[in-house]
């Protein structure tokens, strides 16, 4: 019975996404923008579990900097940003190489093209801030086409829909299995790789511990590993929302990585480019995500309610020399 219900649920999810993929590109741009705002506002009200995570994350990260009312506002805006990002992904067939500059500003592009090259090769480090889907869209149309590891859904029917949308400007999506090897081969051939670097991984996986808003977080070091083996630059990129449903893609200067830097030091250096952005305007970050699922056993500062100590995390902190 459970298997039958699961199959039905997956099929209904598939039909729902197919309907979105059909309807959303037919909406006028102002209607699509308003749709994302309304959908995000409703999600913030209805998703009690996610809202609790977001509020706890904000309290742990900022302490008394924001009042309870301000944390609720930031949480709502975070939901609206994420919903708008997903709606914009479905609306993106309306974006082309001819018109993308009317919707997406590229800040730092000229310096990137001068120091790295408009088509790479390089390692792009991105995070879930602002309209991260439109970053890849704009980069592809600008000529910077990358190989990207896709995040597979539990419902395999959904992967082709999202991959088709994400590949329309020339990127290549690859599966997580042996994904790092695929990225390495891409870089060796003179291509570009893009990696999201703000996702929490279990300490038993290949990870390093970084300091993120004053708390320890185990993250991938794939970008550091690729840099050390290819010598190619790491370029952090983030996105910022603009009025009217537009967005700004910000290319940071390529990282100045000291000789002999460890994977942990490179990963920390990369995140250090993003943290001031999040502190300055927290709303566009994905606050309903459990960034701090693991905490050090001897942590002296408050962590979110869902954080738990695991022996593997303490070992990781000791191995990488990260203070807890």
Annotation keywords:
two-stranded antiparallel ribbon; single chain; 324 residues; 7-stranded mixed β-sheet; alpha/beta
Characterize the structure shown:
The chain has about 325 residues and is α/β, with parallel strands linked by helices. The protein has a domain at about 95-320. It is built from 11 helices and 9 strands. It has helices spanning about 1-25, 30-45, 50-60, 70-90, 110-115, 130-140, 160-165, 180-190, 220-230, 265-280, 310-320, and strands at about 105, 125, 145-150, 170-175, 190-195, 210, 215-220, 235-240, 245-250. Strands 1-9-8-2-5-3-4 form a 7-stranded mixed sheet, sandwiched between helices. The mean pLDDT is about 95.
Question: Strand fraction band?
Answer: 5-15%
Mean pLDDT: 94
Give the termini distance in whole angstroms: 47 Å
Helix content: 40-55%
Rounded to an integer in angstroms, the radius of gyration calculated over CA atoms is 20 Å
Contiguous runs where pLDDT drops below 50 for at least 5 residues:
none
> How many strand segments?
9
Brief sketch in words of this structure:
Helix content is 47%, strand content 14%.
What topology does this entry show?
Blueprint: H1 2-23, H2 29-46, H3 48-62, H4 68-91, E1 104-107, H5 109-115, E2 123-126, H6 132-142, E3 146-149, H7 159-166, E4 172-174, H8 179-188, E5 192-196, E6 208-212, E7 215-219, H9 222-230, E8 234-242, E9 246-251, H10 263-280, H11 311-320
Parallel strand pairs: 1-9, 2-5, 2-8, 3-4, 3-5
Antiparallel strand pairs: 6-7, 8-9
Helix pairs in contact: 2-4, 3-4, 8-9, 9-10
